[in-house]
Amino acid sequence: MSNEHEESIVSERAKEGDAEEDEHSVLSMKNILWHGGSAWDAWFSCSSNQVAQVLLTLPYSFSQLGMASGIVLQIFYGLLGSWTAYLISVLYVEYRSRKEKENVNFKNHVIQWFEVLDGLLGPYWKIIGLAFNCTFLMFGSVIQLIACASNIYYINDNLDKRTWTYIFGACCATTVFIPSFHNYRIWSFLGLGMTTYTAWYMAIAALVHGQVDGVEHSGPKKLVLYFTGATNILYTFGGHAVTVEIMHAMWKPQKFKYIYLYATLYVFTLTLPSSATVYWAFGDELLNHSNAFSLLPKTRWRDAAVILMLIHQFITFGFACTPLYFVWEKVIGMHATKSIFLRALARLPVVIPIWFLAIIFPFFGPINSAVGALLVSFTVYIIPALAHMLTYRTPSARQNAAEKPPRFLSSWTVVYVLNAFVVVWVLVVGFGFGGWASMTNFVRQVDTFGLFAKCYQCKPAVPPPTKTH
């Protein structure tokens, strides 16, 4: 009887999804630009959100790792990230399936990762998920602001990077007006186009420029640099802290399972050629230039790439901040409010600490590695793998699972072994060695440039000419 009831719920949910999809498939400018919920929308969201400004720091990581390690680790962490995104999607479907059997309606409520953990594993997991996810998303938003200031400086250096951070903080605050991930359809599409242009501009510009005189490719030279670069790549493919929100915005969330993998495969076509060619051209010079734009020659093509990345970073800021907006709305009881203006006003306090932190820690590149080691390692890799193992630890849970193991894995045992490997590897290599290396490097940046640095890694001032008598 319970199986029949479950099938009936799944069938009803599928019909509701079909009805909603049909409703939004009616051609109108508003639907085309505003109402996204298809599998393609999810793919564009995952693909455009996955790399963003990290694209500009990957050549820097290659100079720390060396060419071979840089390529291997990109592929390794890309596949590892796709697996844990799959686990998150399975747990979301499991949670939603259980709640819908209890007749819980999510029409005016966006499900988030900490709620999935709470529903499946209890309140302690909710606290852990909330703490790691919110902290990671906050620093992810901080990184986007730092990247905006770092990039625009290479077009207009009349203002220092700190001043540009003030300006772009105000610009990015306008994301409070975008209600949910349903409304990122056109932005996700444009964002991926911008990233694609920038990646191929970097690859072609580096090839046209050729290798600098006396170029050296000595990496890896130090363990600190090696593990700092490795954790930056861990961060690159750990952008799925918004997976649950993207799934919830879909008309048929069950279709999400392999979308992140398909997005990662496309992202490989952007990150591998661009980072490898820029490292080939500039070699060890990148060790002191965490932003690839600082070494590529100033042309109209580079300026176009800078402008496109600025727009894309605005989009990615919105992606990272929107889940924080949802959490804050739930805390103050505004989540069900339909007025866009009132919700936007309520969301503004979320932007202020992000703005402030971007001014304190303007270390473009090193901050990625620190966030990757201390936050992404748990939020995106360790917690999903552990949560999946604990959710399906009993025979009855496995038997009644809403989603069975994928076809390419033979049994639950293989799934458990793979999850255990993810936990141990990321805990030891990502959090352990990566945390040591990235924090050592981060402290070095603080010692060298200081907190509230006015212009991190800017051109040194040209001294005035001396008078001769």
TrEMBL record:
<dbReference type="InterPro" id="IPR013057">
    <property type="entry name" value="AA_transpt_TM"/>
</dbReference>
<feature type="transmembrane region" description="Helical">
    <location>
        <begin position="413"/>
        <end position="437"/>
    </location>
</feature>
<feature type="domain" description="Amino acid transporter transmembrane">
    <location>
        <begin position="35"/>
        <end position="428"/>
    </location>
</feature>
<keyword id="KW-1133">Transmembrane helix</keyword>
<keyword id="KW-0813">Transport</keyword>
<keyword id="KW-0812">Transmembrane</keyword>
<feature type="transmembrane region" description="Helical">
    <location>
        <begin position="259"/>
        <end position="282"/>
    </location>
</feature>
<dbReference type="GO" id="GO:0016020">
    <property type="term" value="C:membrane"/>
</dbReference>
<keyword id="KW-0472">Membrane</keyword>
<feature type="transmembrane region" description="Helical">
    <location>
        <begin position="71"/>
        <end position="93"/>
    </location>
</feature>
<keyword id="KW-0029">Amino-acid transport</keyword>
<feature type="transmembrane region" description="Helical">
    <location>
        <begin position="304"/>
        <end position="328"/>
    </location>
</feature>
<feature type="transmembrane region" description="Helical">
    <location>
        <begin position="189"/>
        <end position="212"/>
    </location>
</feature>
<feature type="transmembrane region" description="Helical">
    <location>
        <begin position="370"/>
        <end position="392"/>
    </location>
</feature>
<feature type="transmembrane region" description="Helical">
    <location>
        <begin position="224"/>
        <end position="247"/>
    </location>
</feature>
<dbReference type="GO" id="GO:0006865">
    <property type="term" value="P:amino acid transport"/>
</dbReference>
<feature type="compositionally biased region" description="Basic and acidic residues">
    <location>
        <begin position="1"/>
        <end position="17"/>
    </location>
</feature>
<protein>
    <recommendedName>
        <fullName>Amino acid transporter transmembrane domain-containing protein</fullName>
    </recommendedName>
</protein>
<feature type="transmembrane region" description="Helical">
    <location>
        <begin position="130"/>
        <end position="152"/>
    </location>
</feature>
<feature type="transmembrane region" description="Helical">
    <location>
        <begin position="164"/>
        <end position="182"/>
    </location>
</feature>
<dbReference type="Pfam" id="PF01490">
    <property type="entry name" value="Aa_trans"/>
</dbReference>
<feature type="region of interest" description="Disordered">
    <location>
        <begin position="1"/>
        <end position="22"/>
    </location>
</feature>
<feature type="transmembrane region" description="Helical">
    <location>
        <begin position="340"/>
        <end position="364"/>
    </location>
</feature>
